[in-house]
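Entry type: protein chain
Record version: 2
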Amino acid sequence: MKVNSNRNITALLAAAFCLLLGMSVAKADDNEQGGDIEGTEDLHIEMQMTPTGAAPPGSSIELQLEADNEDGTTQAELELDENGLPAGTFTVSVTLKSNGNTVQLGTFTIANGQTEAEIKFSNEDENENDNEDENEDENDQGEIELPFPANVNPFDIATVSVSDSNGVVLFTADLTNASKTITTLTTNIIGKPGPMDPSATGSAVLNANASHSRPNGLLHITGQGLSPNTPLKVTINGEASNRKKARTSHMGAVNIMITPRGKTRTVARGVSLLQIKKVTLTNQSGNVLLNFSF
């Protein structure tokens, strides 16, 4: 009985460890780009925001988003160049791709007689300028600088809206609509090995761009230290990639190029180059060999 009891305790401890490990993996896989990565990501988006029926006649807002992530440290700047808004206070909000939540970035105020303004939400470190430059910035009423909230991942922004003091939406922008944006995304991600080849190494380089069209570019995956002559499966965001045949070399290396295909210009079912969050290399039995989180 004592031996069986010890075995039961060991089994329970092992099960608990596996459960905790699974929870840890689930937490790391946060279903969004950016965040805690190993590598670098750079994103640039430009577009004209779309006025609603409530927008003042002749008014416009041009949006630019710059974001870079280096090993989990993210810097972001969202710039809104407005023209023709009346005097008043306005609110900028975003919705997130990962959960659909709406988050308020902040508010800005247009003064009487001010015909245009440049509003910047930024978390970038400011270089220490001399007093003359600082005074010029303070006296320039056309520039409004605000902090970019720490709880917002710029890579996870789906839409941006600008509302008036009554909560009426005046302008909207869908950052996921490649046909209405000028977008570039470049990444260089370090892969994590699976349990079968714990010493394996690899990287995934992504270059994607869209100028008022579907995304173009390529995903380049390389790896070393894998089992030789092994047929591979490549999944992107959990979907089979359009690369149907891949295998390691006799030296255990892999070199895979994936480009958009078909009328929808996707790299996997329902996934464009700009939407890649996770890439996994497995053998034919489904064992993970290399994993890349974007």
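Comment: The two ends are 50 Å apart (CA to CA).
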